[in-house]
Amino acid sequence: MLKYTFDWSIVTSGKYFEWLVSGMKITLELSAVGIIGAFVLGLLIAVMKMSHFRPLRWIASAYLEFFRNTPLLIQIFFWYFGSYKVLPTVVNDWLNSTNFEFAAAAIALTIYTSAFIAEDIRSGILSIPREQMEAARSAGFSYLRSMQYIILPQAVRITVPPLVNQFLNLAKNSSLAMTIGVMELTYQARQVESYTFKGFEAFTAATVVYLVLSVSITAFMDQYNKRVLNPHRA
Amino acid sequence: MGLALVGTFGTAALAAAPADTLAEAKKKGVLVAGVKDSLPPFGYVDEKSREIVGYDIDFVKAIARKLNVKLELKPVTSASRMPQLTEGNIDIIAATMTKNPERAKQIGFSHTYFATGQKFITNKGKVKSLKDLEGKKIGTAKGSTSEQNVKTAIPTATVLAFDDYPQAFLALQQGKVAAVTTDEAILAGILAKAPNKAKFEIPPVQISNEPYGLGMRKDDAKFIAFVDKTILEMEKSGEAKKIFEKWFGKGTDFQLKRTFKITADK
């Protein structure tokens, strides 16, 4: 009964294969930039949110609530189309002459994910008994140094599993970048579909790439956790 | 994206029994047409009546009337219309679809019911020939033939495919792309609705001929023959010309001349 004939050759060689590979590269770039950016920013926001200086805490709270509670798609449109209204013409002209599509998507992904990461890191920090901070402070460490040497190394260890979740989400969320014309993997899969009508093959290929990417991130973080963060337990 | 996937898998699973829309529509008393809903004057929501109206809609209306059934309109996008059809969600596509050999492998086309060519909207005075667009960013909509044509005509250009034409035009207004490209009739429609249309123009640079056809399931032979016969009759009776004049002629924002006739062109 099935009339559909599969033609896997279109996604394993030739022009359409090249499209998918170029899409994969951009997905990898977006994911890499996003993961690094979101982690650094998330760490910063988490520390701000736990600071004893109130204004810092307020800023962090506002940031968290705003970026966690608005859809990522809207944030992407905001950075790409909305920023135009706010920025001066000179800046807009410069942005438009660059690859602003990629930049806007990367900024949106980074900021959106950093809000979730901040909360994960904060819960990791809170799980370290506060006596450790008190002990560190009475041993003469400053607040930041106590964080750096005593609290964060332990907290990050606890935070790794939820962090992996956020990294995986980010890698997959990068497909939303296609709405502003970033030619990432899902975009290219859709292009292959509309040119060849072989959507089944194109999206299967894209699925496999996302799967490999996700499994690689998980495996990497797993090894990192075992070898670097917990060398004694391994 | 989720929809696209469902559509794709649906195509594989559901493309079974040969279609007979003629009998089905008569039995159910309804013909389902996939149309554009944000593309004046082909298919768009009329501000007063809140209904979808346009050139494409008048054609499927005439077909439904001939069939003596009710017409149901379903909004589709350039990317979703073909899966929707093969899946059986709609019976006929009347959504500014260019007939080309690749598509004709998958679906059946009627005779050409509208003909146009691919051009550009640009900032006024910026583009005299294709040379002026070399190395520039050019916007269009996903899943359309426009994209392929512009890549062939200007290989050095970067083509940004947006979800629909209003978004592509917004990108042009913000200077994110140097031009928006698609069929002239669509461009004229976008420009007619633009708040600051004096700033833009459609330079006389054409890169392709675009014959539009109504799309039906490939194995739906009886229905295809019926539609062909109906639109040829509409040409003969002058109804087709009247529809053109109503949406594109003098007194509209487009002021296009009818340079084609519906003929048996297959």
Structure explained in plain terms:
The complex is a heterodimer of chains A (234) and B (266). In chain A, 81% of the residues lie in helices and 0% in strands. With 234 residues, chain A is an all-alpha fold. Chain A has a single domain, classed as Orthogonal Bundle (MetI-like fold). Chain B is α/β, with parallel strands linked by helices. Chain B folds into two domains: 2-115 and 211-248, 3-Layer(aba) Sandwich (D-Maltodextrin-Binding Protein, domain 2); 117-209, D-Maltodextrin-Binding Protein, domain 2, CATH 3.40.190. In chain B, the strands form three sheets. In chain B, strands 7, 8, 9, 10, 11 and 12 form a six-stranded mixed sheet that branches. In chain B, a hairpin with a 3-residue loop joins strand 2 (38-39) and strand 3 (43-45). Classes of the chains: A mainly alpha (234), B alpha/beta (266). Chain A binds chain B through residues 1-4, 80-81, 84, 92-93, 96, 100-101, 175, 178-181, 186-187, 190-191, 193-197, 199-200, 203, and chain B through 1, 4-5, 7-9, 11-13, 15-16, 78-79, 82-83, 102-103, 105-106, 139, 142-144, 147-148, 160-163, 170-171, 174-176.
Quick overview:
The complex is a heterodimer of chains A (234) and B (266). Chain A has helices spanning 9-12, 14-49, 54-68, 72-86, 89-97, 100-126, 130-138, 143-173, 185-196, 199-229.
Beta strand count of chain B: 12
Shape of chain B: globular
Q: Count up the domains of chain B.
A: 2
**CATH architecture descriptor text of chain A:** Orthogonal Bundle
Domains of chain A (count): 1
Residues in helices of chain A, as a percent range? over 70%
Instruction: Tell me the fraction of residues in β-strands of chain A, as a range.
Output: under 5%
> Which series of helices and strands of chain B comes N to C?
HHEEEEHEHEHEEHEHEHEEHH
The oligomeric status of these chains comes to heterodimer
Q: What level of helicity do the residues of chain B show?
A: 25-40%
Euclidean distance between termini CA atoms of chain B: 34 Å
Biggest interface found: A-B, 29 and 34 residues
